[in-house]
Design goal:
By secondary structure, the chain is of the alpha/beta class. The protein is built from 10 helices and 15 strands. The protein starts with a helix and ends with a strand. The mean pLDDT is about 90.
Length: about 250
């Protein structure tokens, strides 16, 4: 297990257990205590955890999003199922916005081979994946590309949505909850999502179960502004029922 794999495993265990001890984790991952302490130091610098005496706890920050490279491998099978379910909702001839995110990247993978789609990509990752597909016309919004995340942000990106109208938006979120609505970590990303939301006739959120019931830093919209949520079987049933009561159609992939 290399450092990146250890970091992913540490974050998974923190999410499920809430607190990790250095010595116990070293035994579980079959590395030295010093290696775990170095891992904790790296992850704390990324604001992904907080070190405490003898161990670590989750960061608790609502304003810091884990890097794309960390997120892309998390819950991958669930994201792939969500991506396929999302692609199945599209008809040939639609105009589509694909938001920036690791789950919409899986939506994009599921669109390969489709015909007669016009897709505005808010992510250079997604644009690069689909640009050579003969049946798909890829558009970019302009604006500023965030390093690492490679999402499009800024005034020029928002201006695009004032001039165009789309059939369907696939939206990613930092969290989705009945009271706080749809939320995101980054203020600039949230601004683009709001603009995209306003220009789309059908608004679909794609979020694995780890996002359900969570709240990030910046509000995008209220839960009842959403048309459809596509998630996976790990999402809490009681919260999904609250979403249904708010008028949101739920698809569990």
């Amino acid at each position: 297990m290399n450092a990146s794999q250890r970091h992913d495993r540490i974050l998974e265990l923190l999410e499920s257990e809430g607190r990790l001890a250095v010595s116990d984790l070293a035994l579980r991952l079959q590395v030295s205590d010093m290696t775990i302490r170095r891992d904790f130091e790296v992850l704390e610098q990324m604001d992904l955890l907080s070190r405490v005496h003898g161990g670590a706890v989750p960061s608790g920050s609502r304003s810091y999003e884990p890097p794309f490279a960390v997120r892309v491998g998390r819950n991958l099978e669930a994201k792939q199922r969500i991506g396929q379910a999302a692609a199945n909702l599209l008809r040939d001839g639609e105009t589509v916005i694909l938001d920036a995110g690791t789950t919409t990247l899986e939506v994009a993978r599921s669109l390969r081979g489709r015909k007669n789609l016009r897709v505005l990509a808010l992510s250079l990752h997604i644009a690069d994946l689909l640009v050579d597909e003969p049946g798909i016309t890829i558009m970019l919004s302009g604006g500023v590309a965030r390093p690492g995340e490679r999402s499009m942000i800024g005034h020029l990106a928002e201006q695009t949505f004032r001039e165009l109208s789309f059939d369907t938006l696939f939206l990613t979120v930092g969290g989705i909850d009945t009271r706080s609505g749809l939320t995101e970590y980054n203020i600039d990303d949230a601004g683009i999502k709001r603009a995209a939301f306003a220009s789309a006739r059908r608004r679909i959120a794609v979020a694995d179960g780890s996002k359900i019931g969570k709240t990030a830093f910046v509000k995008i919209c209220a839960i009842d502004d959403l048309d459809v949520l596509i998630t996976d079987a790990t999402a809490p049933d009681d919260i999904l029922d609250q979403f249904r009561n708010a008028g949101v159609d739920i698809i569990v992939a």
